[in-house]
UniProtKB/TrEMBL annotation, chains A, B:
Protein name: Maleylacetoacetate isomerase
Claim: Hydrolase is one of the keywords in the record: no
GO annotations of cellular component type: cytoplasm
Short name of one Pfam family: GST_N_3
Family assignment from sequence similarity: Belongs to the GST superfamily. Zeta family.
SUPFAM superfamilies: GST C-terminal domain-like, Thioredoxin-like
Keyword Nucleus: no
Gene Ontology terms: biological process: glutathione metabolic process; L-phenylalanine catabolic process
Length: 214, 214
């Protein structure tokens, strides 16, 4: 099994956590999204029509979109399960995951920040304010969801789920960009717990083989 | 069952299609996102901590995030199933759904377009170019996915799935914003099929009770 991904991509990071939690070995294939390797015709046509990272390859089967990959991994390698089977608990896990994957991450990812710089000529301060605005709005929602529905040591219960696979990379990204996350104590507790967990640690950007990519 | 939603919201539209496909009756509760009703403290604290539309209420259970709602509906009202059980087919449906829900829709929704106008003072032409840029990039990916993996009368097979529930509102939104979608023939074929289907027609913005909202 191959994972085509980039060390500093939050969506790649999500899938690396899921693979590490399940103990699934994989070949790490770096795709440098800074130089646009994810747009190369061969990559797009043969591996990932979404023209993005990550892409998982298992024999003849290839799949893009991090949350689709984790759902597929949950069927292929059921232990430990990351998306609960119980209808209502599952809904809570997906709700928080989508808040991050749909409402926070996409507006702050590399391609959007680059468009702001190159097409709209925003200043460094305007770009930073943009980033902080969507983090603040989204993390407030995450914190409210955890306050209302969160239980146990992780987001939902005493074992990591898809919600934790989404939350930790998003917070790591925000901290790297200089955001203050002290006003989100429930989220921070999960983040700190993850920092001592072997699977989350193994998936961290700084430990990936392409982490020195300029 | 209540659906708190807004006629012109693409994420609300997705859930309305799912409910209509399953034939589930619901009370339509309008939430005017143009005037910020989705940020009212009572709505956020009691119904949807994500501070967004849609929110589904079923007795004591409330749930935000359109894709989490449709996943939940698929368990609560299994016929017709919108997210296939088969592992690999399910992956294809989710992959295309996430391309729309994560990569296209979030960067072009109301709150982002408003930020561009009010905080970054972009011109009408710059805002329009922004919108068209992300539609072109995302729809090219949708079209590639359909070309490589699409089958049958709808996106994946001869019955609508979650992918169709996501694609049709996204295309309706793009057409409303003046985008030319003629270069995406596979997507257009699905859109045209949907326009003659009773469930998609019933969910259309123009037929909702709040469609005259200024």
């Amino acid at each position: 099994m191959q994972l085509h991904n980039f060390f500093n991509s939050s969506t790649s990071y999500r899938v690396r956590i899921a693979l590490a939690l399940k103990g699934v070995p994989f070949d790490y294939v770096p795709v440098n999204i800074r130089t646009g390797e994810h747009r190369d015709a061969k990559y797009v046509n043969q591996l990932n029509p979404s023209a993005a990272v990550p892409a998982l390859i298992d024999g003849d089967f290839s799949l893009g979109q991090s949350l689709a990959i984790i759902d597929w991994l949950d069927a292929r390698f059921p232990e430990p399960r990351l998306i609960p089977a119980d209808r209502d608990l599952r809904a809570r896990v997906l709700e928080l995951s989508y808040l991050i994957a749909c409402d926070i991450h996409p507006v702050n990812n590399l391609r959007v920040l680059r468009y702001l710089e190159t097409e709209l000529n925003v200043t460094a301060e305007q770009k930073s304010a943009w980033y902080r605005h969507w983090i603040a709005e989204g993390m407030a929602g995450v914190e409210r969801l955890l306050g209302k529905y969160g239980t146990g040591l992780w987001c939902f219960g005493d074992a990591p789920t898809l919600a934790d696979c989404c939350l930790v990379p998003q917070m790591a990204n925000a901290l790297r960009m200089g955001c203050d996350l002290d006003t989100y104590p429930l989220s921070l507790a999960v983040y700190r717990r993850a920092s001592t967990h072997h699977a989350f640690a193994a998936a961290a950007p700084a430990l990936q083989p392409d982490c020195a990519t300029p």
